[in-house]
Amino acid sequence: MVVDIRQHIITLAAVFLALGMGILIGMALVEDRALVDQQRKMIDRLEADFAALSRDRDQLRARLNLLESELKASRKLLEEIFSKTAVGRLQGRRIAIIAVGDSLDDKEIQGVTQAIEYAGGQVSSITKVLRPFSLSKEDDQTEMLGLLGGRAGQGEEFGEALMEDLVSAVVGGGNLTIVPALESLGFIACKGDMVGPVDAALIITGTQTQPEIPYRDAGAHLVNALKARGMRIVVAEPSGPTVSQIKNYISSGCTTVDDVDTPLGRIALVLALAGADGNFGFRDGAKRILPNDFLAQLIGQ
Questions:
Q1: Which of 7, 99, 161, 166 could be bridged to 204 by S-S, CB 3.0 to 4.6 A?
Q2: Mean per-residue pLDDT for 220-234?
Q3: Largest Cα–Cα distance of the chain, in whole Å?
């Protein structure tokens, strides 16, 4: 039998090619199996991590529910303390509210008013300062100078004179013509009864944005005008403002209450309007949450 060398070479090449392909296929199968095993392990780890996260989430949710329940119970307790201790503390006193800033909406002002009335007091008027007390138009200045009797100068002196007359109207019933004039020029919005004197002035401050009315252009003039009349001043700020102004009033020596929209804040507010001096609340500058003598009385009860 004659062997064809060419055919023999082709046969051997085919055998080696098949062998090589077999080796490659075998290696691929091994690698695929290893990859599958690796992916399965990764999936197992992810499932374990997800299960752990789910447990943590459930625990956090349970903790949050517990904290919410405790907060609700604490708030209810403080509201009961307010209802039992505030009655009669402001009996017969008239309070003028002056708001500087946009931190307290009508609903929250109503809450402060209700707290004062629950304690036996009366809110005589509510005045909102809407813009700095300064004028740029000559005709506006002429009109206002006429109302002020020509005694105001320009710039800061002008603002001080306007604030003095506004305070005179709000807390003492004097120069009532200044109120509609300032309202018509967009300086203030005012409602209430300004006939007769008041016993204390409550300034509400704080803004949600960078204040359009800097302290020096309204708050400082307001405090100076009230002090000049010997008026008791309490400055309050709600819990929500982004830009707090209360430190400026603390520096002016005013009694202050922050978080006035909370039960603790309302308790401190009534006590401050009744005569307790200090800086009450939780923010920087506050010295204590409530007056010490009140806490002593509360514990004694």
A1: 99
A2: 90
A3: 140
